Amino acid sequence: MTDGNTKPSTGHDRVTLVLGGGLATVLLAAIGATTGWILAGEDDRRATSTAGASATPTTRPVTATSSRSTPPRSTPSRPVATGPTVPNLVGRDFDDARDDLEERGLRWRLVFQGGSGRAVERTYPKAGTAVSPGRTITLYVSGPPPVVRVPDVVEDDCAEAAEELAGEGFRVVYTLRRSGPVRKQEPPGDSQAPWGDPVALWCGDPADGKPSPNP
Asked: What is the pTM of this model?
């Protein structure tokens, strides 16, 4: 006989409990693995996104500027002439005109025309022009060259004789030397010759060498 209150066999219950616990453990493990995989994938995506963001440089427009300052260009100015100016010599006797030029430190050159008279018709450069000291001014004379007396310079110093002849309007031509006493001149002294004609001088001692070429 059996008692109606008799408990079921504990062996079967133990098997059921063991099986149930194992199944629960397997399920928990599976859930945990799935959750870890999801979390790990999320972390990987975040890490990948962060790495990609840090690897991409941010480009900004760069404007190149120069520290040099360009100086303004200046137009060179012409030098201001500080020499004498050509005086107004038109209408004056050419002899007086050349003396005026010499007093101003200027040289002169005479060009005689085919008319008559001794007056200056024009000058080059013209009157009022600023020129450098020593500039040669050309005087255009209305008439032909006048006939003047040739100075006698024999026995004079060669340099002094040449200066005197040039002052009277003659061109000096050296046949021997340019220094020493004047031994001979041609044309001779006290003769008449046109203004601007050459006068030859023989200067130096008789024992001097060969004649020097004319200037």
From this structure: 0.51
